[in-house]
Amino acid sequence: MGRKQDAKKMSAREVLTQQWFLAKLCFSASPKGMALHLFESIKLQVSIFFESIWVMNYVLGVAERGESWGKIVWCMVLFMLAVALSTVTFSYYMQSGLPKLKPVLYRAFRMHIYTRMKDLDLQCYDQTDFYQKFILAAEESDVCIDRFLDTTELYCAKGTNFLLSFGYCIFVNPLILIVPFLFLPLELRLAAKENSCSVASRMERLPFEQKREYQNRVFYLADYAKDLRLNPKMKEKCRNDFQDSQTEIRRVHKKYGKRLVFYAAFRDALIGGCAKEISAWMLLLYQLLVQGTLSFAHMLVSFRAVDYVGNSMTMLLNGYKKMLENSAYIRRIRSLADMEPSIVSEKNLPMPQNPGEFDVSHVSFSYQGAGRVLHDISIRIRPKQKIALVGYNGSGKTTLVKLLLRLYDPQEGSIRYNGTDIRDYEVTAYRHSIGCVFQDFKIYAATLKENVLMDVSKNTKEESYEVEKALYDAHFTLKDQRLLYQIETPLTAEFEKDGVNLSGGEMQKAAIARTLYRRQKAVIMDEPSSALDPLAEYQLNQEMNETAKEKTVIFISHRLSATRDADCIYMMEHGRVIEKGSHEELMELSGKYAAMWEVQAGLYRQPGSNEVPELHLK
Ligand code: ADP
Question: What is the chain's mean pLDDT, rounded?
């Protein structure tokens, strides 16, 4: 669903469907909170109506009939107290109840989105449209709830006001109702025009607002801080892009601004303010002076009542505009949450207990909308075998690993594990059965322990011991004095005063510890030591020899010294396996692997020596 559909007029039925969806979600998240919200919105209006219409009618009636003033005073005092009480409780609710209700509803809506989205295919992230929708969903879901609460309050309040005032007019002076309904078609027409104008304006601004948001993020996120300081030209480009987006947004505001002001002014000031009031007064004076069908008191009260009817109709129309806008956002967000993952399993087979063989057979793959990245790949990996995928950047190594992890499915060929197509295993169980360190691993704002566990800590001694052991095996130094609380130390200094920012190498070791902690039978290491210095890399490889002895290991590295001891090395180029064999076999072949080795050996060789430092995988 794209911008065209957003800009398209929504039918009233669809608006109601979207509102109904959010209403159900909010009521199931907090039934009491929502009931109180409705009650508070209605209660205040009821008391205001009685005070301003009913009491006014009573007081003027008593005065006209020349009855005791004491009655008037008592009546006014009582109703003023009632209104004061309901205003105070309403304010209390707005200050105390509503701020408690909102986070519950925000969470419910976010959870609705995220629980659906966490299972979505990784390929969704390759599509710009999906990404834009995702950002919108993340940014707008809370605002949707705010708007929903606002419109619910408005509809309850103004709906109550309308019904009571309308009812009063029917009983006291039905003829006066001609006035607001006379102008209704014109108001509706103007509201529709105003609405399509503001939707068009919003849609035209959206891409520029997204661009501006992106530039904003670049300026405040720590990820870019270093680069921007070192590359002032890029900073300038970002600033210029930001300003261009601002200029475009201003241009769109200007383009639609005058029309929007005209519609609003025409509707609110000319129709709502002047035309309706003048017509009402003329009709009432006619009834009072010419027809003599109305007392003076009824004339005044009728004016107020019909004013309420007209006013609440205008407010309800304005509320509909807000509802329409909100429905467009809800529809967008729901379309995202309703997307179905295509990487699923029909058979949902459990994972076998014993380590199995991976059989990649004639696999070809392309990312959506892009050319072919893998061509007819066939690789067989026996249990506990150590294999290495090597090759220059962009040759397809990581893509192959993503297919092995079933983050994507190949378009041609198949991958079998233990003789069964991996598409038949339960997806999460299959993915969990393989430990993996990607080169773009992430460290979370959580404790070091949680970063290794990748789970919520159960706080058991065994768990802590295992985490410490995994960190030790990954050569992570816990003795560091910055780690005040050892494995309980919070990582990243973004939120915690005592939080620690790890170096690139330390982060990589923590990420490696994740795979050592989980006892999976197969491990994929995608450039696991790229941020480590040669000594640390050597030590880590030694350690991996020990800890990964019983595991199947798929190792990706462009540092051939780290992969030379693999049982089988697959040299990849342009998405194809061009050479395979042991280091010695490949060297003997004198092909591309040997050439790459020679180039790298030259980089590592000591001056005057032919020795290349050896780093072992096994
Ligand atoms: P390697 O790991 O060997 O460096 P990759 O598997 O990461 O190579 O990339 C292989 C090719 O696939 C590259 O040309 C890269 O640009 C392309 N590629 C990688 N990820 C995506 C993606 N998400 N969408 C489109 N193309 C991609």
Answer: 84
